[in-house]
Please model this.
Amino acid sequence: SLPVWLDTKTSLKPDAQIIRRLVVAQDRGDGIKGAKRCDYFVGAGDEAKAIGTTMTSPMDGWVLLPKELK
Model:
């Protein structure tokens, strides 16, 4: 598991919610095909499903690694 800073939107629509937060990369998943792709867990329930199934917007992500210990 690695910490990742995520910067994206819930959709490409003008009223899309901005998502900027620290998340934890836990696995690759079988549905993720190709490089530079991720699966963002929105939550459970109908509202989360409605957001998650339409979330195809570009994102920026930074993997946060510790400095080398001396």
In short: The mean pLDDT is 82. Strands lie at 2-9, 18-25, 60-63.
